[in-house]
Amino acid sequence: DVKVTQSSRYLVKRTGEKVFLECVQDMDHENMFWYRQDPGLGLRLIYFSYDVKMKEKGDIPEGYSVSREKKERFSLILESASTNQTSMYLCASSRDRYQPQHFGDGTRLSIL
Amino acid sequence: RKEVEQDPGPFNVPEGATVAFNCTYSNSASQSFFWYRQDCRKEPKLLMSVYSSGNEDGRFTAQLNRASQYISLLIRDSKLSDSATYLCVVNGTTGANSKLTFGKGITLSVRP
After folding, report:
1. Beta-carbon neighbour count of residue A25 at 10 Å?
2. Beta strands in B17-99 (DSSP E)
């Protein structure tokens, strides 16, 4: 079974802090994704990566950056957290662009 | 037309009812289609892939209509445990930039 592990289930940070969300997958998947999910807006893609050290902007990259130094790990960085980044963050991975994505449990991030 | 568009909801049905969800997509070259299920405050999980010939898994039937560019999910003999949000997923773009696009989801409530 595919296992996607996110570092925290719940996180509370303050405005202006730099926040790191970590995601690790154990299936040697090429592709990894970061989404945020908000009520009424569905899943929105922030960044994705199709290979190590490679990254592509998704639909809402502003205020975020990512890092993929190793194949199994994909990190999301909030450079200077703001209250409008309070959300559920979901990491996913897939074998290739056409295969289904497998999600981690999610991180509920609150920015105060 | 949006890349992926789902029926407006929510759906509220009695136990034992048959319920159908539709989802339209805009890219006629799309090749991958899936239905996901998401329980409240949990991550989305793959329910089933959708194949050109249609496919069935127990009480669930998924179909693809390429001519009209929609996929459907039929749930027969609804159970209380089917209450969840159902997301349709399509690879909305093709080629090098191909990635999956998630619909906003439709919420199903099954009542006793």
Report:
1. 22
2. 19-25, 33-38, 45-49, 55-57, 60-65, 70-75, 84-91
What are the chain B neighbours of A29 within 8 Å (beta carbons)?
none
CA separation (Å) from B58 to B8, B15, B61?
A: 25, 16, 8
Distances (CA, A) of B45 to A18, A75, A103: 30, 21, 7
pLDDT at B2: 77
Residue B72's DSSP bridge partners are B22, B63
Helix (H, G, I), strand (E, B) or coil at B80: helix
| pLDDT at B90 exceeding the cut of 80 | yes
Q: Which of A41, A48, A90 sits opposite B43 (nearest CB)?
A: A90
Neighbours of B15 (CB within 10 A): 12
Residue of chain B whose alpha carbon sits nearest to that of A47: B99
Q: Which residues in chain B (92-111) have CB-CB distances under 8 A to chain A? A: 98-100, 102-105
Burial of A59 (0-12, 13-18, 19+ CB in 10 A): exposed
**Low pLDDT (below 70) residues in chain A:** none
